[in-house]
């Protein structure tokens, strides 16, 4: 629920995620964030309908963290909960 940065809140492009195929055709792209989405404190679907067959069942979640230019050096911590349904 808290931003990584003092000068930029959640929901901005400084903290983003997207899905990527580790094995081709491993999820339904209609229900998957394949472009960068800004992370917020709300639940967000990143991978939708991950397939469970042995030949195509691995995906990745990529993170983009961009430190704002006016941010002072400090330790920053983020917790990301992954829920599988």
**What's the multimeric state?**
single chain
Treating each run of at least 4 consecutive H or I residues as one helix, how many helices? 0
Strand order in the sheet with the most strands: 2-1-3
Q: What is the distance, rounded to the nearest whole angstrom, between the alpha carbons of the first and last residues? A: 22 Å
Shape descriptor: elongated
Overall pLDDT score? 91
What does the largest sheet look like?
3 strands, antiparallel
**What is the helical fraction, as a range of percent?**
under 10%
Residues in β-strands, percent: 15-25%
Structure write-up:
Helix content is 0%, strand content 19%. The chain is mainly β. The protein has a 3-stranded antiparallel beta sheet with strand order 2-1-3, with no helix packed on it.
Topology:
Blueprint: E1 15-21, E2 37-38, E3 59-65
Antiparallel strand pairs: 1-2, 1-3
In short:
The chain contains no helices and three strands. It has strands spanning 15-21, 37-38, 59-65.
Features:
19% strand, mainly beta, 85 residues
């Amino acid at each position: 629920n808290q931003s990584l940065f003092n000068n930029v809140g959640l929901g901005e492009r400084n903290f983003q995620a997207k899905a990527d195929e580790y094995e081709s055709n491993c999820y339904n792209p209609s229900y998957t964030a394949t472009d960068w989405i800004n992370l917020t404190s709300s639940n967000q679907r990143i991978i939708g309908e991950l397939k469970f067959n042995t030949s195509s069942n691995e995906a990745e979640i990529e993170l983009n963290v961009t430190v704002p230019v006016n941010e002072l050096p400090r330790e920053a911590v983020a917790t990301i909960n992954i829920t599988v349904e």
